[in-house]
Amino acid sequence: NSGVVCLLRPLLLDVIPSIRQTVALALGRLADYDVGMAEAVVKAGILPQLICSLPEENRYYKKAAAFVLRAIAKHSPQLAHAIVQCGALEMLVICLEDFDPGVKEGASWAFGYIARHNAELSQAVVDAGAVPLLVLCIQEPEIALKRIAASTLSDISKHSPELAQTVVDAGAIAHLAQMITNPDAKLKRQVLSALSQIAKHSVDLAELVVEAEIFPVVLTCLKDSDEYVKKNGATLIREIAKHTPELSQFVVNSGGVAAVIDCIGSCRGTVRLPGIMTLGYVAAHSENLSMAVIVSKGISPLGTCLIEEHEDHIKAAAAWALGQIGRHTAEHARHVAIANVLPTLLDIFVDTRSSEDLKMKASRFKALKNILQKCTYLPALEPLLHEAPPNIMKHVIGQFSKVLPHDSKARRLFVTTGGLKKVQEIKAEPGSLLQEYINTINNCYPEEIVR
Q1: d(CA 405, CA 392)
Q2: Which fold, 245-375?
Q3: Which InterPro entries match (predicted)?
């Protein structure tokens, strides 16, 4: 407000190097504060002056200049675009080739803040020739430089298969895969994130990541003391498993499903989410893979998540995963029903505090319907007769109408537990599917018992 930015601008061209460095640092701190400050720095015409003599400057100035560019770029795509337009990327590439690791780190950081916004800005970073140099940076001995370079490769890869392919073509996967065993937790986070962002786009890219022999090493990350290493490790496994039955089978054969189940049981909150999704993706592919999740005792931890977690999106994911496990055959649905998760799913559906997204996933459209349409295990269905709303009741009654005509023991139990009595109390539209189900059930009994 006092016009300091305009007073600082001519000092960027001062003959004394220490003044130029200190001015750049001051501008960086101003721009870093909020988007309005960053816009003021750009509008004052600082950027061209900041970078005009960058190649000839010393390492301290280069670090300070990279800090200014990063501080401006982080706030919005528009500000990042302003940096691209003033020709800063070419100057940052020169910094990536600098001998000093601190200068490389500053440039990597700036590239990351530019690339993370969208595919267009990420492509501009690629076109400037930054990717091969970033791959060289992850091979440097300095841990801080490795972290930032891996993070920037992750930010470039995330937007599209083409951008991820550029990172792969520069030879990044092999070097990233080797660093999964590095003891530095912050580096492991970034490495796992970068591999996840590459693997998520397509089967081919996921297979390239798997071919770098990340299994079974990546499973050790699920036991790491750092929560983000756990989460990013589970995310990487999820991004591989989701593509094809073959990749899911590879994860199962490597012990991945058992490790993910252990991970879900040992943590809380959003750290659980990628693991929950992994089980859902694996189970969705085929009957055999779903049975692999069941055999590895995956149902119980998912049921626990429904009860323990407070965030709706985590409950929704657990409900979805259970639906994927139970939807294949009567045997799969029986395993889910025996684990006593159906009443919990129903409670979530009828709870007025549940979000609409969660209700949809736990409702007839998703988990409950998937499981109920296959479930012939009547002891688990019977409690739902007394609690389910009409849209769920239809599927419950439907399953009874399928089983009772062929099972005399079940017919006797259905009377003694009050199930048949409950059916008589249901008001169904004449001619509706529900009325047909009720008629089928009533036809299993003599008229006087129905009366």
Answers
A1: 21
A2: Leucine-rich Repeat Variant (1.25.10)
A3: ARM-like (IPR011989), ARM-type_fold (IPR016024), Armadillo (IPR000225)
Give strand ranges (E) for 121-164: none
Q: Which DSSP category does 99 fall into?
A: S
CA distance 221 to 406: 50
List the structure tokens of 359.
Answer: 């209700």
Structure tokens at 43: 């509008």
* Integer Cα distance of 447 and 438 in angstroms: 13
Instruction: Give the residue from 313, 315, 179 showing the smallest Cα distance to 236.
Output: 179
C-alpha span between 182 and 146 (Å, rounded) = 11
Q: Which of 43, 135, 144, 56 is nearest to 94 (CA)?
A: 56
Count the Cβ atoms, other than its own, within 10 Å of residue 16. Answer: 9
Residue 256 tokens read as: 């991945």
| Cα–Cα distance for residue pair 413/130, rounded to 1 Å | 71
N-term to C-term CA, the chain: 86
| Closest by Cα among 277, 203, 293, 265 to 234 | 277
HEC assignment per residue over 408-441? HHHHHHHHHCCHHHHHHHCCCCCCCHHHHHHHHH
Long-range contacts, stretch 267-271, CB < 8 angstroms, 24+ apart: 267/227, 267/230, 268/308, 268/309, 269/309, 269/311, 269/314, 270/231, 270/311, 270/314, 271/227, 271/230, 271/231, 271/234
257 Cα distance to chain centroid:
17
Amino acid identity, residue 222? Answer: L
Residues with Cβ within 8 Å of 42's Cβ and at least 6 positions away in sequence, in order, are 72, 79, 82
Mention every residue, 6+ apart, whose C-beta is less than 8 A from residue 299. 293, 322, 325, 335, 336, 339, 341
Cα–Cα distance for residue pair 413/79, rounded to 1 Å: 70
Query: 228-260: b or e for each residue (b if 16 or more CB lie within 10 Å)?
Result: bbbbbbbbbbbbbbbbeeebbbbbbebebbbbb
Domain ranges of the chain: 245-375, 394-450
Query: Cα(236)–Cα(37) distance, rounded to whole angstroms?
Result: 37
Contact 295, 313 (CB under 8 A): no
pTM recorded for the entire structure: 0.88
Residues in the chain predicted with pLDDT less than 70, given as ranges, are: 352-365
- pLDDT at res. 364: 42
DSSP conformation class of 117:
S
**Orientation angle between helical segments 312-326 and 299-308, nearest 10 degrees:** 150
DSSP 88: H
Residues 6+ apart with CB under 8 A from 114: 69, 73, 80, 83, 84, 89, 121, 122, 124, 125
